[in-house]
Amino acid sequence: MNKVPNNKAWWLVLPVFLLVAFSAVVPMMTVVNYSVQDIFDASNRYFVGADWYRQVLRDPALHDALLRQFIYSGCVLLIEIPLGIAIALTMPTKGRMASVCLIIMAIPLLIPWNVVGTIWQIFGRADIGLLGATLAKLGVSYNYAGDPLDAWVTVLVMDVWHWTSLVALLCYSGLRAIPDVYYQAARIDRASGWAVFRHIQLPKLKSVLLIAVMLRFMDSFMIYTEPFVLTGGGPGNATTFLSQTLTRMAVGQFDLGPAAAFSLVYFLIILLVSWLFYTAMTHADKE
Amino acid sequence: MEWMAWTLPTALFFVAVGVLLSCMTVFELRRPCVERRGFLPLVTSRGDRLFIGLLASAYLHLAVIGASDWPLWVASLLSLAWLVVVLRWG
Prior knowledge:
The structure holds 2 protein chains of 2 kinds.
Chain A: H1 14-35, E1 37-41, E2 44-47, H2 51-57, H3 60-90, H4 96-110, H5 113-123, H6 130-137, H7 148-176, H8 180-188, H9 193-204, H10 206-221, H11 225-230, H12 242-252, H13 256-286
Antiparallel strand pairs in A: 1-2
Chain B: H1 8-30, H2 46-67, H3 72-89
Helix pairs in contact in B: 2-3
């Protein structure tokens, strides 16, 4: 039977197109317009060309924040992705315990960002916090409000606590989708546990891992609330990441032009890194 | 539209992007592309090459603004040349 190509189905995409246009494209166009003007509101504005971009790209404070952001996102991915896979592999697959584990894993994901920051702020305090008081009793010097390394470790551990569950649940769903015949074939070949993981589970997890890596990269690269509540970006600027710098610029100082230019640079960085991840992880299929 | 604070250069920029995407869509409908491998180290479709060309052009403009005192039209000319090269041989 000959199939007649019919492109009318593309009209079904129109609602999504309109939604994206109003929620993303139009705001982005406005940001582009703001980024080339010295602007206070729509009636008080002067064209300045690329001046804000020049100012933003040559600002050492932003270079430092960008470096911190890349280190932070790198650490988040290096810890959360392997840990999430490991947790998913050890979670029970059947029975009541499987449901219990799934509920426990989902709990951190249900807690709002600012509440997570507050929980860890109290948790880490040496006078009333369980973690801070325990470390103090053990004689370990720990002060996330005064020591940059302690602040970094606390922000990282907080993120791992909050978001590793997402990676684990994604991997768990990916593992459950692997047909049993693969495992039967592996048993016939007397494959080791490592060989099963390397040649069956990991390749089959590729698509969910792609989603997990992209989500965790984009989320961690845009992190704002948790470090803001926990450390306020300190001590000094030790945990001041890009979004906090941007918020300070746009809301604190009301520098809308430089903030718009910075937003677009920020967007381009996320777009490039996400595209690199996506291409690297799907490249093998095309080859 | 006043609230969007339009300027002539940004309006021209978005019109150019819109025209480019429309032309590529019509071109794709008339002559559907076949994925191929050029000098880029990956297999690409025509849309992929356009995306790579535009993204690299954006970074080229940022590099010229951030790291040199060259006028912006130098970056625009280099980007145009890069876009042609990557679409034809990428």
